[in-house]
Specification:
With 64 residues, this protein is mostly helical. It has two helices and no strands.
Length: 64
């Protein structure tokens, strides 16, 4: 009699494990890329807002 547990291999095949590892690496790289992009976007938005505030302050100081 064969048991269900004996019929299955102990580990997935090497190519399947390698493919799974590559998928994990690709997803991690994509996630890091997205996070870095968000951080850079927030930085540029803050920089533009600071520049606009500086221009408004300078105009207010000179004109009023």
């Amino acid at each position: 009699m064969r048991n269900e547990l004996e019929a299955r291999p102990a580990r997935p095949p090497v190519l399947r494990r390698a493919a799974a590892g590559l998928v994990l690496i690709a997803v991690a790289a994509l996630a890091i890329h997205i996070v870095i992009g968000l951080v850079v976007t927030v930085f540029w938005i803050a920089l533009v807002v600071a520049a606009v505030v500086a221009v408004v302050w300078a105009l207010k100081t000179i004109i009023w």
